[in-house]
Amino acid sequence: MKIAVIGTRGFPDIQGGVEQHCEKIYPRMKNDDKIIVYRRKDYLTSQSQVSYSNISYIDLPSTRIKGFEALFHTFLCCLHLIFHRVDIVHIHNIGPGLFTPLLRMFGIKVVLTYHSANYEHDKWGKVSKMILKFSEYLSLNFANKIIFVNKFQMKKYSSDILQKSIYIPNGVENTTCSDQKHFIEKYGIIENNYVLGVGRLTPEKGFEYLISAINKTDEIPQLVIAGASDHDKSYLEKLKQLDINNKVVFTGFTSGEDLRQLYSHARMFVLSSLNEGFPLVMLEAMGYGLPMVLSDIPATHLIEFPDEFYAKKGNVESFINQIKTIWHLPKQVYDLSEFDWNSIADKTQSLYKKV
């Protein structure tokens, strides 16, 4: 089969949970299927030239205009696909899913992966949220099959939607800690004496609550945040202004060995998000055995942790209390057997065959 992948900025080495998800599953798929990934030219770097035997790329123009970027690029992808036919189009997330009926009208079968309810994110205005809700409706009703990475999100929908849906979670790689320290030394990061936060610098990640908590917690000497802004730099500037005690190190978008060093030498991990689909960074932190404090949101209960691992979302005092509680814990042992990327790739490829 020929499978086209749209709705992602692309991979490899492009920031974003959807992008990381795609980078993990498609290279693992067996070579009997041909994978064609549509990428956004504006996000490609020298690292994006890595090739895989079963994957080809089609790089189309894009824009970085917030709220328009994904729709514009997905529309171009659909136009191209109408004239360059494939067996299945795999759309990632509900925003790009707006064009599901267009593809179906031309006889193209569609698999949708529902990563998160984007309309719940505060960064979107009223009109954008209405468009995303409408996109969700079209995506769910016109897709042939739907993959949910969050089983709680899947349970919200009607029996008609559930009949064509399947829960396939995100995954995590088998990891070993790095003994290298050149990256953390470059930023003056104190080995085994810092809190780590990882994610795009967007309001739904709630980093302002984490920074405020760390600045009010004397026993925590340092907070490291690995991630970059999407479009608007004002959120980053707001975060810097909150760092009144100069405890925070911003490393920007970090991947590969550099990110491995951050996980390997951290004392603990904190996820301060207000909303998530299924946070890959949580699984990554588990892979390194890090004690964690997590926003008490449905996505962080996809795996059940002890009560002391949870803080009330958006509540600085709750984060302070839980960080103090967890700070002195040793490395943890987590069961990650359910979250194997090879199994996830196999399940996704089997779904293609059913479609």
Structural topology:
Layout: E1 2-6, H1 17-25, E2 34-40, E3 55-60, H2 69-83, E4 88-92, H3 100-105, E5 109-114, H4 126-142, E6 145-148, H5 151-154, H6 159-163, E7 165-167, H7 182-186, E8 195-198, H8 207-215, E9 223-226, H9 234-242, E10 248-252, H10 256-264, E11 268-271, H11 280-287, E12 292-295, E13 310-311, H12 316-326, H13 341-354
Parallel strand pairs: 1-2, 1-4, 2-3, 4-5, 5-6, 6-7, 8-9, 8-11, 9-10, 11-12, 12-13
Helix pairs in contact: 8-12
Describe the protein's architecture and organization.
It is a single chain. The protein is an alpha/beta fold. 34% of the residues lie in helices and 17% in strands. The chain is built from 13 helices and 13 strands. The strands form 2 sheets. It has a 7-stranded parallel β-sheet, with helices on both faces. The chain has a 6-stranded parallel β-sheet with strand order 10-9-8-11-12-13, with helices on both faces. It is globular, with a radius of gyration of 20 Å. The mean pLDDT is 94.
